[in-house]
Amino acid sequence: MATHRASKNDYYWADDKEPHFQRRQDILKAHPEVKELFGINPKMKYFTVLWVTLQMTVATFCYQLDWIPFLLVTYFVGATIIHGMFLAVHEITHDMAFEKKVHNNYLAFVANIPMVAPYAMAFKYYHAIHHWDQGRDGEDTDIPTLGEAMLFRGFIGKVIWFVSQIFFYALRPMAIKPLKVDKWVVYNFIFQLSVMFIYFYSVTTFLGLDAALSAALYLFLSLVFAGGLHPTSGHFISEHYVFEEGQETYSYYGPLNLVTFNVGYHNEHHDFPRIPGSRLPELRKIAPEFYDNLHSYNSWVAVNWRFLTDKNVTLYSRTKRKNPNLKKA
């Protein structure tokens, strides 16, 4: 991949197309049997319902815990489940749970429940752009804005950004590219607000206001922890931050793939977004010559630590592509 960079205070700019289209063609030519991996993960719906039920159950009864156990449960249980639900929504919005898109959309609503705010359909819109216009300036909202990169610099700046990145991840897209509001975005909004109203009304009615407030705090802190100081948040950094010049996307092959639907197999996922995460390890086994030579990770914790401490890795460490449709300021 040909990239250039004017300075350390600039992004990497690629002159060619994203790497996944060509690698996909090359793999299909060498291994046409890869097409047999296309399809859905029939277990996805069960995992999703199970994890959502567990998270909302813990939220309901966490008012019985003292502060220290409350925080420990929130961090180790709540944040892990929430991040798993982030990636469940990711899988489901690729239509990996059911054959019909409409059924996937409904399941995405369910996966969205523990996140409190309506998120699933907005994510589906922006994530599709991330795949098909990877790195394109003004289109791919996965890349930190110039303002973020200029403001959050050095170790302290990166720590502040890192622990609150979930808010940037949620709000940045709307600042860069207005959300296309369709009926599914509206349905998601109505469904989520209705479920939250029924849930908190029920908890308040049967268990009291303290229980409802504890549940709200548990869900909120689970969300904050999941998107910041949590091992699973390493996937936000590991996927596309340039740690090795000349490579744009990176895979992670560590144990946390077990609770994140194999999102760590990220080169594989971008190469074949029609293969469910459960079968991405098989893709790598079929075509090792295309993946074994790429830089990859085995620890998201190590990725997070290097991001925070390596002065050469900043919010500018992303690959962008010029967008001819953007007007110059």
Automatic annotation (TrEMBL):
Keyword DNA-binding part of the UniProt annotation: no
Domain Sphingolipid delta4-desaturase N-terminal as annotated: residue spans: 6-44
Transmembrane segments: 44-61, 67-89, 109-129, 149-172, 184-201, 207-229
One biological process term in Gene Ontology: ceramide biosynthetic process
Keyword terms, alphabetized: Membrane, Transmembrane, Transmembrane helix
GO cellular component: membrane
SMART domains: Lipid_DES
Entry-linked InterPro entries: FA_desaturase_dom, Sphingolipid_d4-desaturase_N
Source superkingdom: Bacteria
A Pfam family this chain is assigned to: Lipid_DES
One Gene Ontology term of the molecular function aspect: sphingolipid delta-4 desaturase activity
PANTHER family found in the cross-reference section: SPHINGOLIPID DELTA 4 DESATURASE/C-4 HYDROXYLASE PROTEIN DES2, SPHINGOLIPID DELTA(4)-DESATURASE DES1
Name this polypeptide is given: Fatty acid desaturase
